[in-house]
Fold this sequence. Notes:
mainly alpha
Amino acid sequence: MTVQDERADAARNRRAILEAANQLFASSHSPRDVSMDDIAAAAGVGKGTLFRRFGDRASLVRQLYAIRLAPLREKIESGPPPLGPTAAPRERVAAIIDALALVKLQNSHLMLALEEGGGPASSVYQSPDYLAVHGLLADLIAADIDRHRAAWIAHMLLACVRADLLRHLVEVDRMSHAKIRANLIDFVERTLSP
């Protein structure tokens, strides 16, 4: 077998693992029910291949989420207003929270797996993704709205888009995605108003 064949095989295995994990998380009511054994079997790979490729379950979920988050990250880093860097801070904060809610609503199975993770509760708040978006929101809030409470306000706004809360609003309170997003935008605007 040549190096080229091995690379193609590894790429195929990676795609199969990501697709299998995505389908299993999407079809499971609780992400905790999905094991690495389940993912390996569904992908048609050995458990060793799965662990060598992704390390652990949390890393696998983070890679799945990173794929979904990439377009939003690009818009925030270099896109036009309201998400991009040239937007006014208040407008940008509201747009970021709305966009995060949309991504989480559309990918609730992955977000629940990521947020429930099985590790200590603080791990979500120490993840690079959380720290990056929290830092950006805090900077925007401090620049234009409330320098002294910026970090606190950023945490509270991000708490509003936790996957478990969004799932509750959809499944128990029977709120539509549009209603959730409209309420979030209203809440953000009221929170940030002088």
